[in-house]
Design goal:
Oligomer: single chain
Radius of gyration: 25 Å
Helix content: 25-40%
Order of helices and strands: EEEHEHEHHHHHEEEEEHEEEEEEEEH
Number of helices: 9
Strand content: 25-35%
Shape: globular
Low-confidence stretches: 4-33
């Protein structure tokens, strides 16, 4: 069965609580009804979502599950697909593809472009720069056809990668988000999932290809239209989008002092509305919310009972630092609950994920984080079983 205890975090010092199935309360900090009003710019778009990528905590959401057409924000999915293929050795950054006659006829100077010429050979690295800096539709089509053999094969890969990372409500019908009668759609929640996957799975490639202010290709210099880069401290990407059908859309991120926030703004009627909302939301996220460290990496959070093991219990430790955002100037009541399906059964290896830490504010679940076994627990021999049985009887 699932074992659980409730604890409440104060400062927080080390907490090691035997999981007996009963609740055990610790001193609490009152948060009352503390809630932070979002900036007025949040009203400028029908879809807005702000998330702390380090904790997964949603700081603000409006219609986060509503489907919309992402326009050129689609190119973030194209970049992620390319990053995954590079990681697997299927393509190489130095590999070159030729802008053939078919691609030239379909994509020459069509919408945003890096002005590729007929027969021009372009490396994967240069195509990624063009796609992510100047939103090159021609570069997206060339990368798709070169890497997968056809645009159709590429979009199949995109959709496969999206499903693999948990984008459950998205579909991609093109590599660049060009209008396709609604076959390409996503949600703000799914775009945050994509942002999380990029910065955690491919931090070096993210740093290398996102966040450039301009691109010069074939003696033509174009500026990046990202509303955060150069205007918001710590901003380093990701992508704007616009079509008449989709409106103005944006997926962006910024990092300050090791804390990374990501924002989605979608469906705005004007570019300046989208830009204002994105900037205001990121600044509000950093200023109106403060991080509170809960547990250091490797710190023991509690203990879980073990059945048929050389030890009767095992420590549960945080595999990474856990922190939470609470309203600035508020102490914040943070309720923690350790849960595991137990008793655990030996053998157990140190580092195995064996429990979860559920984190709530005002009763609302804001994060469910894994806890791992602190030590190896081997299977019990006869002496161990006798000792554990006596200990359990005495308890």
């Amino acid at each position: 069965m699932t074992k659980a205890i409730a604890v409440t975090a104060a400062a927080i010092a080390t907490i090691a609580v035997p999981l007996s199935g009963a609740s055990q309360d610790l001193p609490s900090i009152a948060i009352g009804d503390a809630r932070v009003a979002p900036p007025p710019e949040a009203a400028l778009a029908p879809v807005v979502l702000l998330v702390d990528l380090g904790t997964g905590q949603t700081l603000y959401e409006k219609n986060a599950e509503r489907r919309f057409m992402p326009a050129s924000v689609t190119k973030v999915m194209t970049a992620y697909t390319a990053f995954e293929m590079i990681e697997r050795g299927e393509i190489d950054l130095r590999q070159r593809y030729t802008f053939d006659e078919d691609s030239y006829r379909n994509w020459r100077r069509r919408g945003s472009t890096m002005f590729l010429g007929l027969g021009e050979q372009v490396s994967v690295a240069a195509l990624l720069q063009g796609i992510l800096t100047v939103s090159a539709n021609d570069g997206s089509a060339l990368l798709a056809k070169g890497a997968a053999g056809s645009v159709e094969a590429w979009t199949a890969r995109m959709n496969g990668e999206a499903r693999a990372i948990g984008m459950r409500d998205s579909s991609f019908g093109s590599p660049n988000g060009f209008p396709d009668e609604g076959r390409t759609f996503t949600t703000a929640r799914d775009l945050i999932t994509l942002a999380q996957a990029i910065v955690t799975r491919h931090p070096d490639k993210y740093a290398a290809f996102f966040g450039h202010k301009s691109l010069t290709w074939d003696e033509i210099t174009q500026e990046n239209h990202d509303p955060l880069i150069g205007n918001v401290e710590g901003a380093d990407g990701m992508k704007t989008g616009f079509t008449n059908e989709a409106g103005y859309t944006y997926l962006g991120s910024a990092e300050r002092n090791g804390r990374r926030l990501a924002v989605v703004v979608a469906g705005a009627e004007r570019g300046r509305d989208r830009n204002a909302a994105a900037r205001a939301m990121i600044e509000w996220g950093f200023s109106a919310w403060q991080p509170r460290r809960l547990f250091a990496q490797g710190q023991e959070v509690g203990r879980a009972k073990v059945q048929q093991g050389a030890a009767s219990s095992v420590g549960l430790v945080a595999p990474r630092q856990f922190h939470l955002n609470i309203p600035t100037a508020s102490d914040g009541e943070i309720d923690l609950r350790l849960t595991y399906r137990g008793p655990l059964v030996a053998p157990i290896a140190a580092g195995d994920t064996v429990a979860r830490l559920q984190i709530r504010i005002d009763g609302e679940l804001v994060q469910s984080a894994p806890l791992v076994a602190a030590d190896d627990v081997g299977e019990a021999d006869a002496v161990d079983r006798l000792g554990n049985g006596m200990f359990g009887w005495l308890q």
